[in-house]
Amino acid sequence: MTQPRDQWHRWLLELRHGGDADHAAEVRQALLPVRDEVLDRAALRPDDTLLDVGTGDGLIAFGALDRLGPGGRVIFADISADLLEHCRAAATAAGQLDRCAFVLAGAERLAGIEDGSVDVVTTRSVLIYVADKAAAFAEFRRVLRPGGRISLHEPINVLMRECDAAVFFGYPIGPVAEFAAKVEARFAAIQPAGTDPMVDFDDRDLVRLAERAGFDDIRLDLRVSVTSWRAPQPWDRFLRSSPNPKVPPLGEVLEETLSPAELAAFTAYLRPLVETGRGEHRRALADLSARVRSAAGEAG
Ligand SMILES: C[S@@+](CC[C@H](N)C(=O)[O-])C[C@H]1O[C@@H](n2cnc3c(N)ncnc32)[C@H](O)[C@@H]1O
Questions:
Q1: pTM assigned to the model
Q2: Domain count, the chain
């Protein structure tokens, strides 16, 4: 029997795509330009040591291994032992283990990583789970050598958060808004608005945090998009997915929150919208890069 995996592993390798292997491949494909942008901004040199914090299944870290020269190294860091094990197996299979290290540590305390020992720190969609973001930036600064760089990509959920009771997961839910409110209340109990680390910061906070941690040459690009459609998706997959690793799959929450009659009415209304993509999509994404001053006082 396979061991149950932790919530981070379960989400990245199953619930993000509702257990649908084809959709998993699509999600991964869609993330490749994001990975490339994070690595472009990191301005890698062939012999750099890159630390990818919250590495997950290694999206950024494996991309870095491909770009660095034979003398370049990648440290995979995460709070999930299961994901680190997954990455170690993938690095072994790719014959790259000798260029990799695996560190079980949170962004707030990168225990086991020496002061001034890395050239680049990357994160993608990690600070949104970190309560003490100032501590994380201080740790990034601590482990970087003079002239070292950070390159981060984070969703700024607070900017595009939908506070409209008539919209549920991007779908116009008017006639069944009463049931949607019950479901939303369950999600809000797990991730309280205002205090959850996913929604307690914006793009300007990221800039301030980098500045206060002692970074220089800080650049941030914010990309906001709104579309009046969503990709159509099978209802079962929608129910088996969860929007982020902290919350259970939607199907479980619906079962737990609604009576059978409410669930039937809710499903009858929402299912056709999901299956035909009649929803909207709103998001804001920030890319931040910065440098530590070199010993001579110059950035970079
Ligand atoms: C959405 S996934 C992103 C994974 C990967 N960076 C990527 O681009 O695909 C978030 C990752 O952050 C990790 N994580 C969550 N809280 C963390 C923390 N406090 N410190 C470091 N990693 C954390 C999770 O284990 C998970 O691997």
A1: 0.95
A2: 2
